[in-house]
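We modelled the chain as a single entity of 283 amino acids. Its sequence is:
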Amino acid sequence: MSTLTTHTTASRDSHSIGLCKFNTTSNAIEVSDGTNWQVYNPDTAAGWSGSNTYSLNFDGTDDHLALSSTVSPTAQQGTVSFWIKTSYSGPGQNQTIFSQADSSITTSYLFFGVLTTGEVRIGWADGGSVLIKKGSTTVNNGNWHHVACTSDGSTWKIYIDGSDEGTLTTVTGSGSDGSWYGDITSGSLDICRIGCQERTSKDSFVNGNLDEVAIWDSALSSSQISTIYNSGTPSDLSSLSPKAWWRMGDGLEANSGTTIYDMSSFSNNMTMVSSPAYQSDTP
């Protein structure tokens, strides 16, 4: 009689190459490469090789990605991680990389982006309370940079290229440092955007390239963030259990179509709006 053997990440070895499993949460087929589970779409998409070849270019005018729900809206700590390559021609503009908000209320949101002067910012609002803080390193120089923003429930941190920015500067407001999505009580979060900020209208569009955008409902450690950065564009973030992970061309979308697939097990797939473009330009 045949038996099935369960292989975990810890127990697999080089002889595990070729093993496959079906993930009932994401409805995807996962195949072992001997080290990690690589994901393939069972619904005729070309699939994902695990490599990083593409990023997504946004025109700074109206390009963005849309999800008609939010990721981890009750989490009171978390991490957002992304790679960005942007440069300003003429007057700079605020650029919002990742935002979740109440679409009917202008002051219920948490967003992450880049100021006109090039520093990374975190913005949080809940009714009348607003707080925006920034780091000190500029990232608007036309080069790729890795950015991670974290909250442990009481303190925000910003990491640029694996390095902690240290004490953040307050841009405006005096709200609670470290507030996350679960701390918003004045509105019901109902939209998620990459590439712009949207409340009652859209603004702060990204002008440049984004890659490997991911979110967690826990604060990653400095060593975990350093690992992501030092790996360049990691072939697999699943071992860190993200709540969402958009690969910007190297996921199940395989450099085609208008859906950017969430490569975590939570199916938070994004839809392209106004045609951001796949480009063979990566960190």
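As a brief sanity check on the tokenised model: The first strand starts at residue 20 and ends at 23. The chain has one helix and 22 strands.
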